[in-house]
Amino acid sequence: MHYSGISAVICTFNRANLLSQAVSSIAVQDFPAPMTELIVVDNASSDNTIEVVRDAIHRHPSRAIRYVHEREAGLSAARNRGVKEAKFEIVAFMDDDAMADACWLKALWEAYGKKPDARAVGGPIRPWWEAPRPRWLADELLFFVGGIHYGTGFRRLKQGEFLPGGNFSVSKRAFEEVGLFDNRLGMKGKTIAGAEEIDLQDRVFREDGAVYYHPSASVKHWVPAWKLKRNYFMRRGFNLARSNAIKDRLSHSAPYALRNGAYYAKWILPWCIKAIMPGSPPRRMYSLVRAAIALGYLKALPGVILRMP
Fold first, then answer.
1. 134 and 246 share a domain?
2. Domain ranges, residue 257
């Protein structure tokens, strides 16, 4: 497939204080200006988001920066609007509280050029801490604050490995093959949820599409101090598991969701026991979050099975 450029998309909701840095990091990319555009999708913010974007347009006149207002609440709706607005064949998503490395777009472009079968490409997300990382924060839980690292080599991801939405590009060909983000999944306002990008990659895998990881396509993601609390990670795991139950029912089947439910029912008590037994703080916290994930999935399962077609 011929690619003529990359449309970068930042979806935002009431984060004007962080948005300026995110926009600027894309506006100064080491990538030809005629081959890129930046679309800021404002998901009905009530702050001064539009002024931040206008200022960026003024400060970076050589870059194509556009502001789009999306009234339908939800990250999936905002991302879908970005896809529809994009003029280039590759759509690259970054969070509004992240900053891209200078070679981010260049690395994504390189990956699609190397691998004609690529349907999605992403890279590392480095936590950008406001406060020191707690001792109890296990590496496996960094995903809940956007962190991801699949190593130092360029490679194809295996089934079960996924790219988080904070550093995630998709070809328009993939959207034509598997559809857009599912509006029933993902963040909506202050509701902590997710799984919409995992669902999309699930569909790509089922169509034998390839998802690649490029270690140079790197961004850093802001982690505010208020997230560095145990209850945040437990709530995040609980709510993400509820989203995953919906995803499993929608993307697979009721028996598939029930099998996953049986797995969580089997392990919830052992994880609770591990969380209170003597051991290292990271291992105990990891077990506690795993138990919260199991509880979230099991709580959502009856409604998912009984109410969804």
1. no
2. 234-307
Residue 201: partners with Cβ closer than 8 Å, 6 or more residues away: 120, 162, 163, 211
What pLDDT sits at residue 167? Answer: 95
> Contact 119/163 with Cβ under 8 angstroms?
no
Residue 1 forms part of a structural domain: no
Residues 137 and 115 in one domain: yes
- Give the CA-trace dihedral at 85, 90, 95, 100, to 10 degrees: -130
Q: What confidence tens digit (pLDDT) does each residue in 81-126 have?
A: 999 999 999 999 999 999 999 999 999 999 999 999 999 999 999 9
Regarding whether 240 and 216 lie in a shared domain, the answer is no
**Stated pTM of the model:** 0.91
Is the four-CA dihedral 137, 142, 143, 144 of positive or negative sign?
positive
3 state SS of 51: helix
Both 215 and 263 in a single domain?
A: no
Contact 35, 47 (CB under 8 A): no
